[in-house]
């Protein structure tokens, strides 16, 4: 079954952090997907030159024709600056998807689940959590989310609100450049102590672990988790950029 | 469909060489790391490469056996399905052709599955491995391949999307039919020609 390029209309744009904006699209038809999957985006210049990139779907699958993609601005990028500087509500952007057959979690896959995200790597993990909330699931999940400062936590308010439900979801943000963290936020890079604390919040060893972020972050997190005894086969990684 | 307001950035060296970048790709000077799971660490003294026909082992090489074989150097462009391309990458290894000669083996079927130490697999037709089109690489830029880039040894078959260049390779299995490997089972194209933009099944 061929994934075709579809023209999607930008219906809203929302700043999430200083470097991340959400773009809300209306697709020609409803989209079915599994949290963790992404969409490919294609920009075409008048001379036919194409630029393509992939963005994880941020919104939970809900059977509608609306999806949210969260785009992080890369200073030397070609596509993200275009999104930040030029794309406006009403514009048509070509998308295709959903893509990805491994880094996905549907509530029915079970748990417990450990999610580890760095920076914009939280986006597919937030999608998994949003879907879990929509399904009113009590599958135990812990999210370790590393960002520079509290204002860099994408979907920070929403994640704190989900934590407040006390339904088996544990939110462990850690801030690497914060000097004065608010309550409920740790300081420092991910390490064995932090990840062990997260594992201890789950009622039993995780069935699945999803790690997403820049390569160095993912490599560190995966090595630490292996050192803590998590089986390699339980760990799924998605590495952004360099 | 032209995208309103998009003209693309100055295309750098790619603009000087029209037709060198496959459709939908962008040129990078980095070497991004992508994988489905954690990086396995295999010591050279434990490493082995095995050729099998179906379930039957035919020939295996230890690291010591392997490095006594003729070395092939290659400087191909490489293209990842995640859209980045890198030009003139420097590799050294042993060609599949030379391995077959050393094994005194004529390919018994038209299809192979490459297997990796972490359980990964990917299918490549035999014709795409012969004639110097593919090597088992052990060095990148003159140094041993870093673990996160697939060391100690990886398959290198650069005319296909780079997920076909299986990292941490431990064996090549000849199969009767074209068998889907890890990503092929998960929605990616069975062949993966970047020039036909064969990223996903159905492309």
Write structural notes for this entry.
The complex is a heterodimer of chains A (242) and B (203). Chain A has 242 residues and is α/β, with parallel strands linked by helices. Chain A folds into two domains: 6-99, Translation factors (Elongation Factor Tu (Ef-tu), domain 3); 107-240, Rossmann fold. Helices cover 21% and strands 33% of the residues of chain A. In chain A, the strands form two sheets. Chain A has a six-stranded antiparallel beta sheet with strand order 4-3-6-1-2-5. Chain A has a six-stranded parallel beta sheet with strand order 10-9-8-7-11-12, sandwiched between helices. In chain A, strand 3 (38-44) and strand 4 form a beta hairpin. Chain A starts with 5 loop residues before the first strand and ends with a strand. Chain B is mainly β and 203 residues long. Chain B has a single domain, classed as Alpha-Beta Complex (Sulfite Oxidase, Chain A, domain 2). Chain B contains three helices and 13 strands. In chain B, strand 5 (78-79) and strand 6 form a beta hairpin. The longest helix of chain B is centred in the middle third of the chain and has 7 residues, at 96-102. Chain B is globular.
